[in-house]
Amino acid sequence: MIYLLEPDGLEALAALWPELTEADQVYQTRHWQPRLDTVPVRQAGYNPEIAAAVLARWQRVLRAEGLHRLALAAASEDPEVYNYLAVFIRACRRDGPALFNYMQRKEVYPLRCLEREVQREVHRFLGLLRFSCSKEGVYYAPYEPEHDISRFIAPHFAGRMGEARFIIHDLRREKAVLYEQGQLRLQPLPRTFSDFWQAEDASFVRAWQRYYQQAAVTNRLNPQLRRKNMPKKYWAYLSELWGAAPDA
Amino acid sequence: MDVVDKLGILAAAAKYDVSCSSSGSTRARPSGGLGQAFSAGICHSWTADGRCVSLLKVLFTNQCIYDCAYCINRRSNDIPRAAFEPAELTALVMGLYRRNFIEGLFLSSAVAVSPDRTMEQLWQVLRLLRERERFGGYIHVKLIPGSDPRWITIIGHLADRLSINAELPTEAGLKRLAPAKSQAITLPAIRQIGRLSQQLQDNRGEPGFLPAGQSTQLIVGATADNDRTILLHSQSLYRVPRMKRVYYSAYVPLNQDPRLPARVEGGLRREHRLYQGDWLLRFYRFSADELLPVQYPDLLPELDPKTVWALRHPAFFPVEINRADYWQLLRVPGIGPTGAQRITAARRGGSLKAEDLPRLRIVLKRARYFITCGGRSPMAPADPAGLNRPDLLALRLAAEEPALPDRQQDFFSLYPEMGLLQPASGPRQASGRGTGQGVAGLPDPDRRQQEAERLRDLFA
Ligand code: SF4
After folding, report:
1. In which residue ranges of chain B is pLDDT below 50?
2. Distances (CA, A) of A239 to A142, A201, A235, B47, B52
């Protein structure tokens, strides 16, 4: 059987887990491309209580840190992510959380690659997210990450922004994390929201751009190194690069 | 002059300091305040030369009463000068931090009026940030040489890291080039920072005092000191409590001064090798004596210091991946702390074969000459014979070295206003000890030949 999942994240797989067998495959609905073979395809349902119970069971085996690592991998856009997760979770019954270390094994390596890729993007965006401030004092950061990482980066900003209200908007997935009165909330937000956003902080952007230009040593330009650390796909929202030469 | 213009001048003047790290401190957001420090450090951008931007690195002022030979800000240079007001710098830091442009502030200064007067100005900025704004982000402060030692206690309660630049490894060098920074001034300050932060942490459990410890910086190439002298000095600095980093900065002739060398040995390549040596001191349990014995007092431009050590100690190898302990693994060229940890953890799940190592992200290209997996060497059948001879292996490994920076950091591009001070003619570039670059950056065949002969002699 091929199961298709509508909701995102590890919870979606957890909700399906009791009925999943080793022979089954699982895909996100948006990743699924109909095939010519005869394997039956079924849209999976979602029951939050089953998901919570299964997640609690996994946590008992893998502890909170292990569960967090699975959740990171589950945020990957790789179409095979749920199948890698299923294989790993089954193998965990024998080895427990130590399995994460056995990267030489085929049931571990693909999952560790995804976890690393997502973790890397999470860490990158702790620095690369750019907020602008409205007249009302709300901070807004639009971005388009490769993976579905908003829920992983939001607590970091809640920790540092204090009383300030903010919105982290994933334009690619049209959803946002809202932070207000100490509470984080994940909700859909259309891409067009960013077109209507009015920022009131030109003077800080000007200072930031001047600082950024000054920080570079012009006789040591190294565009490859910059692109390696800060891939071009992220540049559109980086205010220090607005107006930079396109081939920079 | 508006604050953005001041920022332009005082950010350019601060580039002289190489440190920009925001790591090593965990500071929770003060209640009702803004910001926190994240122990792993965060890069917020990368400049066009590929370096990480984490902190707003500025001088408070570039007006200086001293005249250190190598320094751009020295009193006798005719350059644009500026100074922040504490309140305007505070507002700038808060505004940039709120927008997630920076992780905090790196605040240094030239010495305006007197060392104590300058420290007082820096303290004003810190008080405004920590007390009025309740700012919890990362702050690194440079201690002004010659200021009252009590500033260490005062600033230490407000900043995450405090540093004072040792600048040169010998007193003779300092006397000649920077008399204001004699070792009699800098070393006691470095020791006192260490002593105080250790005491406060141990006795009172006060982790709030300089949670990210201290660091320092050495200029490389402005004096004739060899690499052994420099690394021995770093080793002794690392024995000071809470010394987290020694930074190395390749000296560039900025000023015309008879005390300064006309030619600079080594440039960025030497700086890079010193960082590698430094890393080996800190994380690999190498000693400076092991890396640079008296008879070989300089790091080789052609090979990294761990590979050189390995080639000089063939009896230590091969190391068996399935049995060697963590510290033995760390001595293998191509295996670093993360790789060694992965190996020791992974082999609990079953014996490792050579083909497993790439999955643990071990770079076999370098390591394969020095290891066995289950008693078998992972050398490819296509590898030429004779690689058990250190001289031949040295040549091969040198040829496989990744490209290294050869160009001297050009401080005239940091300080365009200094164009007038540079010599009218003559090479501005480093003589490039081991540079190996010919016209248009292509390897110079003669130089290559010389390098090969040198390596053969060294490891024969
Ligand atoms: S005291 Fe510092 S700023 Fe002043 S000249 Fe010496 S090195 Fe430069």
Report:
1. 406-443
2. 12, 11, 8, 13, 16
| Average pLDDT score over residue span A209-228 | 85
- Cα separations (Å) of B355 from B60, B131, B323, B347, B378? 55, 57, 17, 13, 8
- For chain B, what is the radius of gyration of the CA atoms? 24
- Which of B259, B299, B51, B287 has the alpha carbon at shortest distance from B168? B259
Q: Distance between CA atoms of B3 and A203, rounded to whole angstroms?
A: 10
B38 touching A, CB under 8 A? yes
Structure confidence by residue, pLDDT tens digits, B142-157: 999 889 999 999 999 9
Q: Within 10 A of B328 (CB to CB), how many other CB atoms are there? A: 16
Alpha-carbon gap, residue B408 to B428, rounded angstroms: 8
Dist. CA B219 → ligand 1 center (Å): 13
Q: What angle do CA A208, A126, A51 make, to 5 degrees?
A: 155
User: For residue B286, what pLDDT is reported?
Assistant: 97
Rg of chain A taking only CA atoms, in angstroms:
21
Which residues 105-144 in chain A show a CB within 8 A of chain B?
Answer: 105, 109, 123, 126-133, 139, 141
Structure tokens at A5: 């999942």
Closest C-alpha to ligand 1, atom 5: B74
C-alpha angle A214-A215-A218 in degrees, rounded to nearest 5: 75
B360 vs chain A: nearest CA distance in angstroms? 6
What is the pairing mode between strands A165-170 and A175-180?
Answer: antiparallel
Q: Over 80: is that where the pLDDT of A212 sits?
A: yes
- The residue length of chain A stands at 248
Say what the ipTM of the complex is.
0.93
Judge whether B348 and A98 are in contact, CB under 8 Å.
yes
Percent of chain A at pLDDT > 70 equals 98
Report CB contact under 8 Å: A210, B8: yes
pLDDT band at A248 (very low <50, low <70, confident <90, very high): low
Least confident of A39-48, A225-234, B34-43, B122-131: B34-43
Residue with token string 């890397």: A120
User: What are the start-end ranges of the H helices in B169-223?
Assistant: 171-177, 183-204
Listed residue (A227, A234, A228, A230) closest to A248, CA to CA: A227
Contact B48 A157 (CB under 8 A): no
**Among candidate residues A99, A76, A79, the one with its CA nearest the CA of residue A26:** A79
Please give the pLDDT value at position A106. Answer: 93
Tell me the CA–centroid distance for residue B441 and ligand 1, in Å.
Answer: 34
Which H helix or E strand runs over B401? Answer: none
At A177, which helix (H) or strand (E)? strand A175-180
Identify the pLDDT of residue B431: 34
| End-to-end alpha carbon distance in chain B | 63
Higher-confidence position of B30 and A89: A89
Report the pLDDT value the prediction gives residue B264, as an integer from 0 to 100. 66
Using alpha carbons, select from B54, B72, B151 the residue that is nearest to residue B110.
Answer: B72
CB B91 within 8 A of CB B139: no
Range A202-222 average pLDDT: 87
Residue position matching structure tokens 């104590």: B116
Q: Give the Cα separation of B233 and B217 in Å (integer).
A: 11
Task: Give B338→chain A minimum CA distance, Å.
Answer: 12
Coil, helix or strand for B69? coil
Chain B nearest-CA residue for A106? B359
Supply angle C-alpha A70, B22, A231, rounded to 5: 60
